[in-house]
Amino acid sequence: MRRKRQNKKILRIILTALLVVAFVAALGAVLIWKVFVVKEVSVKGNEIYTDKQIEDWVLDEKYSWNSLYVYFENKLNKTEEIPFVDSLQIRLKSPQKLEITVVEKGILGYLYIPSLGKNAYFDKDGFVVELSSQVIEGVTKINGLSVESAELYKKLSIGDNSKLLRTLLNVTQLLKKYDRVPEMIYMKDGNVWLIYGQIQVNLGGGTDLNEKILRMDQILPQLDGMSGTLHVETWSENNTDIYFRNGELMEIPNDVQTVPAASDESADGNQ
User: Residue 36: pLDDT above 70?
Assistant: First the structure.
């Protein structure tokens, strides 16, 4: 009898514990279901995509209305690859508020690759970070060069012209530094041309680029509303001539695909 009473007591304790666990679990489920509801989303770090586009990308599943689900889904599973985005980080600021931090791929410009029918977007080191038919507003188009093919995460190959690629990368980095990103960079006969709407700038070869772009940056505001070519190509420490020819505009063919021969001295940017 004594053992039977002890067994009943143990059974009651177990049942009580199970009921408590079940109650806590049910309460937790209700809280998760009713409290962790996405009501506000903030997005930062994005330039290419709008806040709404990023939000739609993240909250694209059946249970994405639940903030806890979105948080752990992002932590445990690999985020679906988004063009031009390196990573997404999701922070739960409150049960109803999500903060999405976007880390975009560093893009300096793009070239059209005819064999792929896509644009190759490259970074400051000349590595292809994205292949896409999409054209991103505010990213400089490179014209006048020919690239037979391009592979994601590999360096651009412009024939045997490594100096030409270095000149291009130097120019794009300096333009970003001075916040003078042009609509297009046109490489022609060893000269680098910058296109800003109705203003064209001839930088010449690859020498004295920093000084040339610095002076161009100071002059461009004075040319607002005008049309013509700013000649900076002959500037050097010994020749400081810079002049503007009003109405002089070079016709630039669309998607020119030519590249100087490796032996062509002009391809070295007169370095």
Answer: yes
pLDDT tens digits along 203-215: 998 899 999 999 9
Per CATH, which fold does 40-104 belong to? Ubiquitin-like (UB roll) (3.10.20)
pLDDT in tens, 198-254: 999 999 988 999 999 999 999 999 999 999 999 999 999 899 999 999 999 998 877
**Where residue 271 falls among pLDDT bands split at 50, 70, 90?**
very low
Dist CA 201 CA 194 (whole Å): 5
- Bridge-partner residues for 112, per DSSP? 119
